[in-house]
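Blackboard transcription, Thursday session:
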Amino acid sequence: MPQVGGCRWRDGGAWATLVDMKTRHPWSPVSAVVAAMLTASACTGNHDSPAGPERATTEPAATSPAPSTTPVSTAGPIELSRADAKLEVSIEQLRGGVDRTERARLRAAISEPIARWINAAFHSGGDPNSDLDAAFAGWTPRAAALAREHRDVTTNAALGANLSRVIIDKRRVRLFVFATDGVVGGATAGVTLRVAGVQPAGSETRFSVEGELYLTRDGSQWQIFGYSLQRQEEQR
Amino acid sequence: MRPGPGAPRRPGRALMSVALLTVLGVVVPDASRPPPEFALVQLDGVEGLDATDDVIWMLALGSDARPGEPVMRSRSDAIQLVGMNTVNQHAVTIGIPRDSYVDIRGFGRDKINAAMVYGGPEATAGAVTALTGIEPDYVFVASFPGLIRMVNGVGGVRAEVTHEMDDLNQVFHPGPHRFSGVEALAFARIRYGLPGGDFDRSMDQGELLAGGLATLAGRMRQPGYFERALGVFARYTDTNLSPVELYRLGRTVMTIDPAQVRVCVLKGSTGYAGAASVVFADLAATRSLVADVRNDATVDQTC
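(Written on the board underneath:)
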């Protein structure tokens, strides 16, 4: 089995090999030593311990503990009840050798930054522009900067500064998780929100936000690093 | 063209909404209908991604190892330097004819496809860098069976056949074609009958890469497809990227708009080095192309 630089060019019967040349440069003596030290773990993926964020025990405050399997309907006009809905989070897909007992912890850990975003960005009740830091605290800095530019969609900023009340009548998150060798690498969160903002004069704006959030983790913290969201607005 | 990460998709949506409202306003007289309970006023869409880098260069190599031969120490049948701009979502594939006669550091001058035999993919990456001045961030090596399985794994890849091809037990007629794994491998390898020989084959390989990206982009509409595909990729690929890095790189690659992928091949001329038939790269044309794409992976001139 020819090897150059640890596992880097291993002929191990795999279909293919993908090597990051930038972070572990093959011609750098220093990185060669580092690569050799990492070989045992980097080749197997064990450097990302399963005892990481998957074992977080903190459930987001607004997270429903039980997964829902109710299909999400995205068609038709927005119909709001007058009560806030709890955040429903379900893991729709989880493969890659992750222990089933980790599902609950994983769901809680991934949904934590999502719940924070929803609460601060859409449910602030006051001036949403003042809550942008809180809304995007669980996002990577660059994704947060982009999301701020798109605040008309990523927050309820478009409703204006003086809201007397905000109701989120639907908040649904479906998680599709990527893992390999038992180690979780990222997830796509399918998001459905239905929001109503009531102005002091009584006028009401209703809209939905649907789309996807992309998450990975930095150490033990899950972060949103990308998004593709749509906002559909309706007015009385 | 899709908007770049961070770019709102509003104009098209807004135009659609305005058009819809205009039609409603003209066709339906106000007096003939009750006051609307709701009106559709806008559909905004936004995208943003904290990509691994604004511009990524990946060297994709196809090893011609036969059964029992080491994949990483066989000749590279396909050499494609792929640049991806995650900001404007453009990409360029630069095909390097495998017979290009180049300097291989530490081993002298030879065909570039021999570099992997001498020093593995690192030697090939070094030779590509010496030729183009572009240092790849990532190197991806696939074997013959690997390519077949990956193409089959995504349900086939569409690409344009530009010349009649009849070789390697396959016949392809000019026009769009959906390739199975076995067909894709043949399409990437066939040189016999191509008027441009090695250059045309390199172009076909680039078209196959572009077609693969388009195929994946189309599948991405299925919820969970990205995670499933990446899971299969990770399972059968040796890599020094962690699962987190792999996920982020995968999402970054998928920001590229397949419609904005330009397929290029380095220009050159055929000749001989001793008794060996080789390709001499057109260095002026190579420098010109590299100057155009190095910083933004976007082709502004012809290639």
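Lecturer's comment: The radius of gyration of chain B is 23 Å.
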